[in-house]
Design goal:
Structural class: mainly alpha
Radius of gyration: 25 Å
Number of helices: 16
Shape: elongated
Distance between the termini: 88 Å
Helix content: over 70%
Largest sheet: none
Number of strands: 0
Strand content: under 5%
C-alpha cells in the first residue's frame, strides 16, 4: 500500500515538474525575446510547445512569439542577401501565425503580421487576403498602405491607388503615418501604371509636405527630387527650370545629390557615384543609380540604352525594394 502511494506521489511530482518546465520555458522565451536574443527565444518557444502541457492560451502565446522571432530573423537574412533562408524563416512564421488564426481568426494583429510575411515571400494574393480580412475587422490607414503595397507589387495599380486615396481620406493623427509618405506611395503606384502626370503631382505634394520634417535627411530630398523629375520627364514635360530651382536644396557634389547634377547635365555618368567599400551600402547605391539612369534613358526615348541599367538594377537591388519592382516592370514592357 505504502509503495503504491509513494509511486503515485512521484508520478504527481513528475507531471508537475514537466508542467512547470513547459511554463518556465515559455517565460524564459519571452525574456529572451525582450533581450533581442532571437535564436535562444525560438529554441525556448519550441521547447515550451514540445512539452505538450501548455494551456491553450499559452500555446497561442508561444506560437505568436516564435512566429515573430522567425519574421525578425528573416529580415536579417534578407539584409545579407540570404534569400532562401529568409523565405524558409517566413514559412515557419506563417505556419505559427496560421495556427494562431485557426484558433482565433479575428486576431487583427496576427492577420496583419501573416500578411506581411506573405508579402515578403512574394505571395501577394494571400497577403492581400490577410490585409483585407484585417481591414474588415478594423479600419486602419497603415493596413490600407500595406495592402496597397501588395496590390502594387502584383500589378493591381487601380486598387493600390484607391487604397492610398482612402488612407489620405482617413484620420491618421494616431496612426504613426506621415501624409507625405502616403502621397509618395500613391505616386509610386501611379508611376508603375504609367500615369506620370498623376505621379508627378503626388511626388510634388510629398516634397512640399515632407521637406521641413526631413531637412536633416541628406538622402530624402535628392531621391524625392529625382522621382519628381523622372515622373515629369516620362510625362514628356520640360522640367529644367523646376529642377534647377530644386537643385539649390541639395548638395550637388555628394551622392545622391550628384544624381540631380547628372539630370541637369552638369556632370557625366561616371562622376555621379564614387565606389563604396561598404557592401550593402554600395549595392544600394548602385541599385538606385542603375534604376534612375535607366528611367532617364526611357524618358529620352532610348529603350536600348535603358535596358542594360535596368538589367543591372535587377541584379543588385534587393528583391523587396521598389527599385527591383520598377526595373522588372520596365523590362517586361520593353519586351512588347
Amino acid at each position: 500500500m505504502m509503495r503504491s502511494l509513494f509511486a503515485a506521489i512521484c508520478m504527481v511530482l513528475f507531471v508537475t515538474d514537466v508542467q512547470a518546465a513547459g511554463v518556465a520555458d515559455l517565460r524564459a522565451a519571452q525574456a529572451a525575446a525582450e533581450k533581442g536574443t532571437g535564436d535562444e527565444a525560438i529554441q525556448l518557444f519550441t521547447q515550451a510547445l514540445a512539452a505538450g502541457d501548455l494551456s491553450a492560451d499559452d500555446q497561442l502565446i508561444a506560437r505568436k512569439g516564435r512566429g515573430r522571432e522567425y519574421s525578425a530573423k528573416s529580415l536579417i537574412a534578407d539584409a545579407f542577401n540570404r534569400l532562401d533562408d529568409g523565405k524558409r524563416l517566413r514559412d515557419n512564421a506563417i505556419a505559427d501565425f496560421s495556427a494562431v488564426l485557426a484558433a482565433k481568426p479575428e486576431d487583427v494583429a496576427i492577420l496583419t503580421e501573416r500578411g506581411q510575411a506573405y508579402h515578403m515571400n512574394q505571395q501577394f494574393d494571400p497577403a492581400v487576403a490577410d490585409f483585407s480580412a484585417a481591414l474588415k475587422l478594423k479600419a486602419s490607414p497603415p493596413t490600407l498602405l500595406q495592402r496597397a503595397t501588395s496590390l502594387r507589387a502584383k500589378g493591381a495599380y487601380d486598387q493600390a491607388i484607391a487604397d492610398c486615396t482612402a488612407a489620405l481620406a482617413s484620420d491618421i493623427k494616431d496612426a504613426n503615418l506621415d501624409v507625405w509618405d502616403i502621397y509618395n506611395e500613391r505616386g509610386y503606384a501611379e508611376f508603375l501604371a504609367a500615369r506620370y502626370d498623376a505621379a508627378a503631382a503626388d511626388f510634388d505634394k510629398a516634397l512640399e509636405l515632407g521637406a521641413s520634417s526631413r531637412a536633416d535627411d541628406v538622402l530624402w530630398m535628392p531621391y524625392q527630387i529625382a522621382w519628381l523629375h523622372l515622373a515629369d520627364a516620362r510625362a514628356g514635360h520640360d522640367d529644367s527650370k523646376k529642377l534647377d530651382g530644386l537643385a539649390g536644396k541639395v548638395n550637388l557634389k555628394q551622392w545622391p545629390g550628384t544624381l540631380i547634377a547628372y539630370f541637369l547635365g552638369q556632370i557625366k555618368l561616371e562622376e555621379v557615384s564614387a565606389a563604396s567599400n561598404h557592401g550593402a551600402m554600395g549595392r544600394g547605391r548602385e541599385c538606385s543609380l542603375s534604376l534612375f539612369v535607366g528611367e532617364d534613358a526611357l524618358a529620352r526615348g532610348n529603350r536600348e540604352q535603358a535596358r542594360q541599367p535596368m538589367l543591372r538594377a535587377r541584379e543588385v537591388c534587393n528583391i523587396h525594394t521598389l527599385q527591383y519592382l520598377v526595373a522588372g516592370t520596365e523590362l517586361d514592357r520593353m519586351k512588347n
